Amino acid sequence: MPSDVLIVIPGDDPPQVQGSPHLERLKAHGELILHSDRPATADEKVRRAGNAVCLINSRGAVKWPGDVLRRLPRLKMITVCGIGTDAIDLEAAKDLGVVVCNLPGQTAPVVAEHALALMLAVARRAWFHTNELKSGRWTSHDNVYLRGKTLGVVGTGAIGSAMARLGAAIGMDVVAWTFAPTAARSAALGLRYVPLDELLRTADVVSLHVRLTPESRGLLGPRELALMKPGAILVNTARGPVVDTEALVAALHAGRLGGAALDVFDTEPLPPGHPLLGCQQVVLTPHNADQTPEGMDLLNAGVVDNVIAFLEGRPQNVVV
After folding, report:
1. Helix 108-123 crosses helix 293-311 at what angle (to 10 degrees)?
2. Annotated catalytic, 239?
């Protein structure tokens, strides 16, 4: 085993890679150190990762801003355990020569299935009816029949494309928006790209599948949410800051929207007293759309593959 290669998992909380048999494959490539709790401070991050050559950032809640990355002199590579790289200052990594890798599309079917389930749960008022019955009330509230309705998919990468196919499979008319639409992509997916404003005005369900970037942060603000059809449903399995939470809460309380299904939030973990917790027609899950045994195994295998590929001089899934 190379004695000078240190591979660090800095904060595997909640558990993601710990206990995975895939970690055994790293033993031939370096020393592995896994921390099962999150580092609370920048100094603690540096203590844990200061001698690391490779980082496996298994939890996006562990952030790597530029000032921390600059204190890691031996760091050559970071891999995230999913698609999003918003936990890492990519510009700083590029300046420092640190390769950043992700896992594009690895669990797309798993996440899309979760998005579909969230959509159906809100449409059929699953949480609302359950809560009413648990509270001793037999309350009548119309459900939403989705067949023949319009699904607007925002972002047509691997997950958005899979969601579009699932929507079509239950009889929905699917339209889409992306930052860079092409006729070839439209034909390959069998859907129609429209301007974002048109999508928001016409879709009965808007499902978000964009990466968090400076361009997508706040993509749906007060203006965009006001454009949505009265009674429309918003599904977000992308990143919380893609949506203006304050504006979303206001739209829900006003009864303009028919509901929201969210797996991601502006603050994670979701703190007690968060305004979304006071909204009725919502279904919330704790950023766990890919957390099935199959999904976790795919991700764990993928991050190990990324590290080994880098150490063998053939980096893959490189973002920067």
Report:
1. 150
2. yes
Q: For residue 22, indicate whether it is catalytic.
A: no
**In whole angstroms, how large is the CA radius of gyration of the chain?**
21
- Active-site residue (options: 239, 256, 312, 314): 239
Superfamily, domain 108-284: NAD(P)-binding Rossmann-like Domain (3.40.50.720)
Of 29, 35, 59, 287, the active-site residue reads: 287
Q: Which member of 129, 256, 268, 274 is catalytic?
A: 268
The model's pTM: 0.91
> What tokens does 304 get?
């190990």
CA 206 – CA 198 distance, rounded (Å)? 12
* Region(s) of the chain under CATH 3.40.50.720: 6-106+293-311, 108-284
268 labelled catalytic: yes
Q: Which CATH architecture has domain 6-106+293-311?
A: 3-Layer(aba) Sandwich (3.40)
**What tens digit of pLDDT does each residue of 78-136 get?**
999 999 999 999 999 999 999 999 999 999 999 999 999 999 999 999 999 999 999 99
